[in-house]
Write a structure and sequence with these properties.
Helix 4 (100-110) links the parallel strand 3 and strand 4. The model has no long low-confidence stretch (mean pLDDT 97). The chain is an alpha/beta fold. It has twelve helices and 13 strands. The chain folds into two domains: 4-14 and 272-379, Aspartate Aminotransferase, domain 1; 18-270, 3-Layer(aba) Sandwich (Aspartate Aminotransferase, domain 2), CATH 3.40.640. The strands form three sheets. The protein has a seven-stranded mixed beta sheet with strand order 2-8-7-6-5-3-4, sandwiched between helices. Strands 9-10-13-12 form a four-stranded antiparallel beta sheet. A two-stranded parallel ribbon has the order 1-11. The structure holds 4'-deoxy-4'-aminopyridoxal-5'-phosphate.
Length: 380
């Protein structure tokens, strides 16, 4: 039985063929690391790294290129940003739809005297921007928001939150895990101070690499949480003050750099608007189909507006984990069940602790994939 991969919210699959091809080319033919030696292969790798930063800047309407920091992944970028910025006595505002990549570091910081307010979203996972404004206090130093929910696909009005943050002079950081590569995300017009993204989801690259884009003024207020060699300023035992070295200690994931650079080239060629239209069409098809199945309910928005292609279903009266297992075993449909590392989001949506069965598609998903999933949901 041919399987249908509908777990793109966890990680996208397949990848554009040039991604594994460029990674293999690096490992087989290039081999050199970046930012250290100066022979030809090392310089060639350095150029690929620079092209990756330039592509990130174009994709997210961001600059300067020095502030497109490469990270080992989105969780690392979010940790770097939270722990590098918040100090005891600082207050932070988050939504009730955050992933544990934000909540766990924040809970750890809370033990050191950081406080936070969790702004309650509605039962569809939607944040009311005015509630963010109401949560701001004189000691609020940061607002952090999951742009798109990895549970319900709900997309927040980041522009409205950005406008509030700008008015109050509070830095605004977006977790772009579920929107990067799926929707246009404009760093500048959203008024962001930081945007953290994984390379392996909508950006179609490999895992083990991500990016943290930092507004220069905000970057100056961040303290590195990890230190080490950078291949620069080697006469000093202090991490350099300049970017991006300040936040990129250690030998980077060069195969990942090659893979993500190739993935972003593909995405640029395809166009994020085109990807978004494809996602929307598949979402509409799935939601239309699910509406006629009385044994399931959609968790989160049941229209295409205000969401990405991540749909959680609840099978009332059934064990959702058993349903997901049967979907795979009997129909070859690959989903993800459980709480999706986001207990707060599930509490908001009323699905804690039972969890949901999550279906998520991407650029390489087809109408046939959606139809096979619907058939399976109907029959299971
Ligand atoms: N935030 C959200 C909204 C996510 O969906 C994820 C991944 N599930 C993360 C953060 C963490 O990203 P990663 O696991 O790639 O570090």
């Amino acid at each position: 039985m041919e399987t249908v991969y509908l777990d793109n919210a966890a990680t996208s699959f397949p990848k554009p063929p040039q991604v594994p091809r460029q990674m293999a080319r690096y490992l087989e033919e290039v081999g050199a690391t970046v930012n250290r030696s100066v022979y030809g292969a090392a310089q060639a790798a350095g150029m690929v790294e620079l092209r990756l930063r330039q592509r990130l800047c174009r994709l997210f309407h961001f600059g300067p290129v020095t502030h497109a920091v490469l990270t080992p992944g989105n969780t690392w970028g979010l940790n770097l940003m939270l722990a590098g910025f918040l100090r005891p006595g600082d207050h932070c505002v988050v939504s009730s739809m955050e992933h544990n990549a934000v909540m766990r570091p924040l809970q750890a910081l809370a033990k050191q005297g950081v406080t936070f307010t969790r702004v309650q979203c509605d039962a569809l996972g939607r944040l009311e921007p005015k509630d963010v404004e109401r949560a701001l206090r004189p000691d609020t130093r940061l607002v952090v928001l999951a742009h798109g929910s990895n549970v319900s696909g709900t997309v927040q009005d980041a522009a409205a939150v950005g406008e509030i943050c700008r008015r109050y002079g509070v830095p605004f950081c977006l977790d772009g895990a579920q929107t990067a590569g799926h929707l246009p995300v404009d760093f500048t017009s959203l008024g962001l101070s930081a945007l953290s993204v994984p390379g392996h989801k909508g950006l179609l690259g490999p895992s083990g690499i991500g990016a943290l884009l930092l507004d220069p003024a905000f970057a100056q207020r961040l303290t590195p949480t990890v230190s080490g060699g950078t291949g620069s300023a080697s006469d000093s035992e202090e991490i350099p003050a300049y970017m991006p070295d300040r936040f990129e200690p250690g030998t980077p994931n060069v195969p990942g750099i090659y893979g993500l650079e190739a993935a972003l080239a593909f995405l640029e060629e395809t166009g994020v608007e085109t990807v978004a239209a494809h996602d929307r069409a598949l979402t509409a098809r799935f939601l239309d189909g699910v509406r006629s199945i009385p044994t399931v309910s959609v968790i989160g928005p049941d229209a295409v507006e205000g969401r990405v292609g991540v749909v959680s279903l609840d099978f009332p009266g059934r064990d959702n984990a058993e349903v997901a297992e049967a979907l795979e075993r009997e129909y070859g449909i690959l989903t993800r069940c459980g709480l999706h590392c986001a207990p707060s989001a599930h509490k908001t949506l009323g699905t804690f602790p039972r969890g949901t069965v999550r279906f998520s598609w991407g650029w390489f998903s087809t109408e046939n994939d959606i139809d096979r999933a619907l058939e399976a949901v109907r029959a299971v």
